[in-house]
């Protein structure tokens, strides 16, 4: 693994040099000690020909060359037009579904290997040229023998070694950060990279994606807000996924959406409601909602419906995390900073000995300037990140299970502001959160909780009975003393010696009175016991 990691580092360095990414870095306003690093880079000691590529194109092509992990990072950045210049954001958008495809013949060979049959035997039509191509897989259009139009998704060959090399470096950096920095240890970087490792490898298993899509389809069955295509399970394999072909407008195609008179305000608000429905109602959310995976139906532009694809990455939260997030958001937007601080302490994210007043003051200092803006101008993702930055000063430990949620929230907010710049994220989310919290304490919910508790009674009774039995006979299940097995021969030898010694003493004490001979009889009894015992 170390050799692979070194080779990968050299590969990254070559890509940085080829696309002059160091020029992009040093164009930024950096501290002098960072600017001085450019003189330590040997490739900058000699004149270089200027590249006939824009800075956005150079960054996009570099990320493409570096593989899936870097491409996904570019996809996330492409949704944050509030953070990036327009020329860079436009280029990074091409990473969403226009990654250069791999050889179609390799795709056909892999499909036939996975299905165990020729494509002509399975499909009445199969388009060799890919319909779309992304970081992990590419998609081909096809038609089943039964007449349904479908898409066939196939995983790119040779991804695992590249991913393993990138992850090796990420783990190396994370472990080094934990060793040298107390602040880094609070962020649990090794655990975060471990979660990402699981996520990226799960995405390579298309059976898992098929299962996620089926679950999401059930959750939104009959919904006017979102539609999820049907999965054809008989034709799904670990590296091949066959699902219903959908027809819609890509969510970032604003001109076409405007031409069909789509209600953009409702579209943006429904995107927010879908996110909160997945997180709080279902605790099962699509965690890769970049624009390349989201389309808009053309059926009812006045009541627009999303179409979601690519469910390879999903997330979920525990009831405790759901409750914490909902209460925190309410307290934050009501400017109840004391409640925010108390929730952090109660949840265990901040040490119990943290001084409440100091923590409250720190949160107020960071957050109060945000509320000087109109509520519609507040960046939800920025608020969340600033809140975590403040808490980190008080030894807050980052919860890895929320990393996917933060990423998804940034995607949703960036997309919503593209569709409808005046989107008021909080006023859209507030009614849903209020309704969700009311439902949690409704009589129906309380009865359901009571029913689930009653179902646990037999199990709790069995546990109580086992506990009482262990308390009444604390040594019943203890392992036998080792001498009962390994030392039995030595004890029998000792018993034989005591028998011999006792017999000798008894023979010499015949003329003595009975009381004087008691040691001999004691030795005989002890020796007999040790010899005959099991």
Automatic annotation (TrEMBL):
Pathway participation: Cofactor biosynthesis; ubiquinone biosynthesis [regulation]
Keyword annotations of the record: ATP-binding, Cell inner membrane, Cell membrane, Kinase, Membrane, Nucleotide-binding, Transferase, Transmembrane, Transmembrane helix, Ubiquinone, Ubiquinone biosynthesis
Chain segments annotated as transmembrane: 516-532
Topological category with respect to the lipid bilayer: Single-pass membrane protein
Family the UniProt entry places it in: Belongs to the ABC1 family. UbiB subfamily.
Record-linked NCBIfam families: PRK04750.1, UbiB
Designated name of the protein: Probable protein kinase UbiB
């Amino acid at each position: 693994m170390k050799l692979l990691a070194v080779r990968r580092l050299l590969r990254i360095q070559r890509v940085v040099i080829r696309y002059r990414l160091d020029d992009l870095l040093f164009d930024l306003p950096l501290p002098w000690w960072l600017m001085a690093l450019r003189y330590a880079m040997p490739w900058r000691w000699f004149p270089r020909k200027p590249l006939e590529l824009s800075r956005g194109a150079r960054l996009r092509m570099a990320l493409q060359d570096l593989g899936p992990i870097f491409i996904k990072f570019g996809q996330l950045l492409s949704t944050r037009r509030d953070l990036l210049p327009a020329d860079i954001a436009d280029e990074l958008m091409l990473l969403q579904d226009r990654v250069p495809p791999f050889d179609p013949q390799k795709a056909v060979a892999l499909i036939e290997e996975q299905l165990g049959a020729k494509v002509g035997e399975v499909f009445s039509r199969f388009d060799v040229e890919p319909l779309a191509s992304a970081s992990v897989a590419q998609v081909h259009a096809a038609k089943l023998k039964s007449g349904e139009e479908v898409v066939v998704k196939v995983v790119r060959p040779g991804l695992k070694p590249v991913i393993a090399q990138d992850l090796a470096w990420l783990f190396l950096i994370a472990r080094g950060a934990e060793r040298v920095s107390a602040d880094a240890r609070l962020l649990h970087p090794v655990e975060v990279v471990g979660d990402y490792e699981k996520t990226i490898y799960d995405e390579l298993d298309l059976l898992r994606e098929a299962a996620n899509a089926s679950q999401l389809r059930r959750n939104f069955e009959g919904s006017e807000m979102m539609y999820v295509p049907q999965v054809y399970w008989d034709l799904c394999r670990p590296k091949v996924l066959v699902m219903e072909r959908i027809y819609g407008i890509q969510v970032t195609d604003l001109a076409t959406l405007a031409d069909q008179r789509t209600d953009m305000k409702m579209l943006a608000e429904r995107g927010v409601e879908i996110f909160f429905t997945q997180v709080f109602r279902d605790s099962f959310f699509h965690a890769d909602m970049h624009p390349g995976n989201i389309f808009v139906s053309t059926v009812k532009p006045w009541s627009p419906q999303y179409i979601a694809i690519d469910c390879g990455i999903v997330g979920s939260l525990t009831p405790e995390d759901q409750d914490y997030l909902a209460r925190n958001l309410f307290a934050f937007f009501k400017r109840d900073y004391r409640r925010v601080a108390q929730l952090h302490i109660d949840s265990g994210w901040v040490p119990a000995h943290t001084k409440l007043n100091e923590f409250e003051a720190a949160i107020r200092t960071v957050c109060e300037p945000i509320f000087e803006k109109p509520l519609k101008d507040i960046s939800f993702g920025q608020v969340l990140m600033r809140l975590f930055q403040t808490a980190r000063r008080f030894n807050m430990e980052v919860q890895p299970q929320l990393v996917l949620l933060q990423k998804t929230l940034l995607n949703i907010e960036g997309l919503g502001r593209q569709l409808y710049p005046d989107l008021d994220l909080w006023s859209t989310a507030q009614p849903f959160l209020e309704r969700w919290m009311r439902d949690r304490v409704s009589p129906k919910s309380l009865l359901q909780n009571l029913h689930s508790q009653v179902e646990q009674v037999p199990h709790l009774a069995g546990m109580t009975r086992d506990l009482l039995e262990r308390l009444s006979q604390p040594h019943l299940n203890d392992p036998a003393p080792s001498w009962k097995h390994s030392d039995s021969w030595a004890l029998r030898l000792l018993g034989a010696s005591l028998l011999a010694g006792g017999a000798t003493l008894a023979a010499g004490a015949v003329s003595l009175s009975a009381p004087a001979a008691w040691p001999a009889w004691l030795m005989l009894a002890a020796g007999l016991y040790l010899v005959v015992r099991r």
